[in-house]
Amino acid sequence: MFNPQTQTFSSISVAEFFYRNRQMAGFGNSAQSVYSAVRELVENSLDACDEAGVHPVVRVDITTVDGGTLEISVTDNGTGIHPDHIAEAFGRVLYGSKYGMRQRRGTFGLGVTMAVLYAQITTDTPVEIVTQYRSGEGKRVRLFMDIAANRPVVVDETPIDLGNPGTTVRIRLKGSLRRSRERIVEYLRLTSVTSPHAHLTLFIDGKRVLSVGPWSKTLPALPRATKPHPRAADVELLRRLVSEYRGTRTRDFLSRAFQQMGTRTAARVVRFAGIDSKKRVGELTREEILSLSNALQKLDGIARPDASCLSPVGKEAFSTAVTRLYSPRFTAYSLRGPSEWSGNPFMIEGVLALVEGSSSDFPVLLRFANRVPLLYDASEDVLMKVLRQINWSRYSITTSGTPILFVHVCSSRIPYRAAGKQSIASIPEIEREVLSLYRELGRKAQRFARGCVRSVRDRRRMREFERLFRMVAHFGARLAGCKEPPVRDLVVQLFEVDAGE
Ligand SMILES: Nc1ncnc2c1ncn2[C@@H]1O[C@H](COP(=O)(O)OP(=O)(O)O)[C@@H](O)[C@H]1O
Ligand SMILES: [Mg+2]
User: Fold this and answer.
1) Is the pTM of this model over 0.85?
2) Domain carrying residue 243
């Protein structure tokens, strides 16, 4: 029988939570964990290089230590890590430098710590970080995590000087390369599609297995952090901003704390919420904060979110990367947006490539979010869901090759379905834009496919005409007793197409 005296309560740290639920972050089994560890380390390296404004040079080394243990190390030429933050960044779950409102690969301050946690629970070895921040600020640190307390435990640290900024992170974990190798290679190849400015290499047991990029000389413009959009102002966000701007009058607060909020719009919001515009925000009651939040989210006529916090790959770089990696017969590029979901700006860009061979009308879908390829959980992704809604046979593109669709969603906040960041949730605004993107790309490919069918038909008819013309010329010349005239030009003129085609 239930005895109220024995009911016990306790609380656990976030690290403990992710230790118990590591599959949520992509560390469920050993094959996926090797892949996820590489992915998290590479993601951080690329973010750090973009932050530093350099062409990323990222080297991944995977070495077999013994049958079931691997050592993974990733080296970059990025910003390096400030010595004061190394321990927390690697030894504390949900600690990071990327919580601002702008597009970045990392989001939660979770990725590398999960790799460290997994390494620790499978091999009981510390993570090693060798990093150079500014000159004179280089360090080599080895640390464990105290999972129950969610804090780092430093084993040793020594000052070093690498000369240039950059970082190497090294972990040892239990895992199988046999089952993850292909995924890792695919991941790095695809990474170079949406990070075409990067040079990526993979070494396995000292042998170079892959070297891709850079495909583009231009560095992507660094996205700018923006203020929150009024549509994102739920009560919690509003309360935090209010405590930051306590002494400011409500109307001025709105135009200072939010983007797209001029003084006139701010006055409208305040009126709509029924609040005295001169009242200081620190004095607003709970009810007033709630009605202000409602007004901000509901009032019409507020401009769309500022998209300067986003960084799409762009037509030139995206198409070039696809062309260099897949040698397609044709590529089409389209970009949709900027649009918004709950105050978060997003853009969706895609390349539809037709590669040699023909299988089905239904395109192979390759998904990317904030420049990161998504390789797992495709069936649950909004990009796949919309792909299934389209009748691809309508575009008749298979005659010209196998269609591969590369789709990149970028947003200051990607609505991932889980902490492992493998698939994107179905948000109506995103669905709408994805549908339009697919249709645009389908139509572009259809125009090309039609052209191909026409030119195949024309070439066949040209050959037939040329054969007949040659016969006429041959017998005509014999009858007239003169030299046989060339007929090729006549045929070309007749068809008014490029005979070399
Ligand atoms: N290679 C690196 N170069 C520079 N900073 C790094 C690197 N790896 C990790 N960091 C720092 O560690 C923090 C935590 O990383 P992580 O747990 O992967 O979270 P996230 O990438 O989501 O912020 C990052 O926010 C970043 O500041
Ligand atoms: Mg990360």
Assistant:
1) yes
2) 230-298
